[in-house]
Amino acid sequence: MSSAVFSTSAAQGRPLIFDDETVAVVCPQPTGAELFGTARPWQRISPANVNPALKAKLAGVTPASRLTERPAPQMVSCGIPEMDALTGGLPRGCLTEICGPASSGRTTLLLSALAAATRRGEFCAVVDAGDALDPQSIAAAGVELDRLLWVRCAEASHPAAPRSSEQPLEQLLRAADLLLESGGFGLIALDLGDLPPQAARRVPLTTWFRFRRAVEHTPTVLLAIERQSIAGSCSSLLIKLRAVRIGSAENPRGDQPVSSPFAPTHAQLFSGLKTTAEILRSRMDRKPARSAEIAFASKTPWAG
Question: pTM (2 decimals)?
Answer without folding.
Answer: 0.68
